[in-house]
Amino acid sequence: MNQYDAHATGPNILLDIFSHIAVLCERYTNTVVRRSRNPMLITVEPASGEAIYAQIVRQIKFAIADQTLRPGQLLPSVRQLSQQVTVNPNTVARAYQQLQADGIIETLRGQGVVVCKGALQACRKQRKQIVAQRIEGVLTEALHGGLSVQEIDQIVQQKLKSLDGNVATIGSSSDAVP
Asked: What SMART domains does the entry give (predicted)?
């Protein structure tokens, strides 16, 4: 008998699986992800279905949550980041506007855009919410597809083992990962 047998039916299955995966992911991201001292690396996937500006917003929030970016730290200018990511400057400007509306960054006259003081806690909370939503979608699809809780758990365990130490974070460069 495993921890899921007590809730073998009903909507609690998804919550139990999600809780288990959330704990594993939290443990994983806090212990085995390699970090580098290289500058922040933001990548966009135009074919992902997620708006490019939203990808930039998410990655900056994750970088703040991971403390790759810290309160008071200067962000790249719109022009610099648009050149790094190879997107239109208006896309980066829109991402910065969203981050400013969310209270994550602020513009300091004569200095540029910096991370706000309270951004760390807000970004950590939002990172968990974003990851939770994405995991819930995958778990829902797996359950609707007929996979059992045990099969899903086995897949998650296998994937976590295969990713062990091989995931670049926002604060690492792609050549820092084997």
From this structure: HTH_GNTR
